[in-house]
Design goal:
Blueprint: E1 2-5, E2 8-9, E3 12-13, E4 16-20, H1 26-45, H2 48-54, H3 57-66, E5 73-77, E6 81-88, E7 91-97, H4 106-117, E8 122-126, H5 130-138, E9 142-149, E10 156-161
Parallel strand pairs: 7-8
Antiparallel strand pairs: 1-4, 2-3, 4-5, 5-6, 6-7, 8-10, 9-10
């Protein structure tokens, strides 16, 4: 069962579905995560051993199933899974849109879905990921003074509050 809504786009209406993830979706979810993380974070972390060694579709898929990450993940699925958001209580843990579908409002629909259906009030993002910071600011999240090292790296993550 999915969340169906019809956002206005000019004079036409398009049907989109945001639904809960299932194990049947895991290969597509892992594919989106691996590709998006390589595209966005390789230039920040400069760690090819991780990006092309540890960060593999099968490894990510297994990790997400084993750790129960699908329990609180929602997918933008209009026949093709194009994006995902993972929520834990009042925190947005992850929001990714497949590179090929970015710029089409999918991330905006996912974050607005989270804000409308959950009490999301904060998230953490990589300090150098200025595109993400601008995106979240456009959706009402503000940078705070809270920052900490991303585990196992020399890069900082920053908290944003809604």
């Amino acid at each position: 069962m999915g969340y169906k809504y019809e956002p206005e786009k000019g004079n036409t209406k398009e049907m989109h579905i945001i639904r809960r993830a299932t194990e049947a979706d895991i290969s597509r979810i892992a594919e989106i995560l691996v590709f998006a993380k390589r595209m966005k974070y390789r230039s920040i972390f400069k760690d090819d051993v991780y990006a092309f060694g540890e960060l593999q579709v099968l490894t990510v898929a297994e990790k997400y199933i084993e750790n129960g990450f699908l329990d609180n993940m929602f997918l933008y699925d209009d026949g093709i899974i194009k994006g995902l958001i993972r929520i834990d209580k009042d925190e947005i843990l992850e929001l990714y849109v497949d590179h090929f579908f970015q710029g089409q409002g999918i991330g905006s629909e996912l974050i607005e879905y989270a804000k409308e259906n959950f009490q999301v009030s904060f998230l953490w993002t990589i300090e150098k990921n200025t595109d993400a910071i601008r995106f979240y600011e456009a959706h009402g999240f503000l940078l705070t003074d809270n920052r900490k090292l991303e585990e196992g790296t020399t890069e900082y993550i920053v908290m944003m509050r809604n």
